[in-house]
Design brief:
Alpha-Beta Plaits, 4-stranded antiparallel β-sheet, single chain, 211 residues, alpha+beta
């Protein structure tokens, strides 16, 4: 009788254990399916994020290209105290005499100005100016003449390309290569954000050689 009762209890407990194991198995399978769904969703999201990042990068490149294209009509003039930029252009390129007002579309002063129109306190230094030309070849003619202009050297004036912030950053990174090449007597120069030494374009990977 005792053995029968014991056997009955063991069988009952075994049934409960089997039922519990089956429930756990079902739960594990359900969780496994949920994990698979989550993984599939994560993969889809990762793919969308990757595509979005690629698209954003493409749009950023297009914006930079548009900015560069627009700035090709511009030159920056530094060191100008009081003279009119038109007078400077005519002094550098005599062929512009009497026509600079037709050649220059916009003159924009750089630097912050307070709401009352005055400059903030601090060391006073001539503000830079951006000149936007009506035609690209007018800008290019002035830029070419400015590189060896005695007038600019005598009056401590300097024309520079109107580069975007991104291009300025790239130039600053490449400057050590250009400076070193010049010290070695090589022909090193910039064209926009790109640097060249003896006609060969440099890249940021070349910085490892300098460092």
């Amino acid at each position: 009788m005792l053995l029968t009762s014991l056997k009955s209890v063991i069988n009952e407990r075994a049934d409960i254990l089997d039922k519990g194991i089956e429930e756990v198995k079902v739960s594990v399978e359900f969780l496994a399916e949920e994990i698979k769904d989550v993984k599939r969703n994560v993969e889809r999201v990762d793919k969308r994020v990757t595509n979005a990042e690629i698209r954003i990068s493409e749009l950023e490149n297009k914006v930079q290209d548009l900015s560069r294209y627009k700035r090709r009509w511009n030159l920056r003039l530094h060191g100008l105290p009081n003279n009119q930029p038109v007078d400077i252009c005519e002094a550098v390129v005599p062929a512009f005499a009497g026509k600079s007002h037709e050649l220059i579309n916009v003159v924009h002063h750089l630097g912050r100005v307070r709401s009352d129109g005055t400059l903030p306190p601090g060391p006073k230094k001539p503000r830079g100016i951006i000149l936007q030309f009506t035609m690209r070849h007018f800008r290019d003619a002035l830029w070419k003449a400015a590189k060896n202009s005695p007038y600019l050297a005598t009056h401590h004036l300097r024309f520079a390309e109107d580069l975007s912030p991104e291009d300025c950053v790239q130039r600053n990174k490449l400057w050590p290569l250009v400076e070193r090449a010049r010290q070695q007597g090589k022909r090193a120069y910039f064209v926009g954000p790109k640097a060249y030494v003896d006609g060969k374009e440099l890249n940021l990977q070349d910085m490892e050689v300098v460092e």
